[in-house]
What does this fold into?
Amino acid sequence: MSPTDEQQKRSGKRMAEKMVGLKEKCVGCRMCELACSLNLENVFNPKLSRVQVERGGNALDLPHICFQCDDAPCAEACPVDAITMNEATGIWQIAKDTCIGCGVCVDACPYGAMFMEPKGSYALKCEVCEGQYCKTICPNKALEYQA
It folds into this structure.
C-alpha cells in the first residue's frame, strides 16, 4: 500500500489532487492566468484567474495556487460554510451563491492562494478544473498536477 493510500485509509477521505506552481520554472508570463480566466469566466482577465502569479522583482516569480490543505483554514474561517470539500474528489470548493464576499477566507489562507473576485462578490481559488488549461498553456512547465 502506498503512503497516499495509507493516509486515505486513516483519514477516511480521498487525498486531493492539486496543481502545484514551480517557482524555479515560472518566468512570469502569466499565460496560466489568462487560460484559467478564459476557461472559467469566458474572458481574458487575470484578476478572475484561480492562479495568481506574484511578481518577484529581482527574485523569481511565484504562481499562487490552492494547496488543498487537509485542515483548510479557509473553510474553518468561513462564517457561512461556503467552502466545502467535494468528498468524491477531495477538492475544497467555493459555493459562489453562498459566499458573502467577506474575505475572511482570503485572510485565513496561509499560502496566499485565495483571492477575491474584483468586485468583491465572492472568493476565488483553484478547484483543479478538468481541463487544466493553466498547466497545458505554460511554456516552461511551471505547473504540475500532483496527487
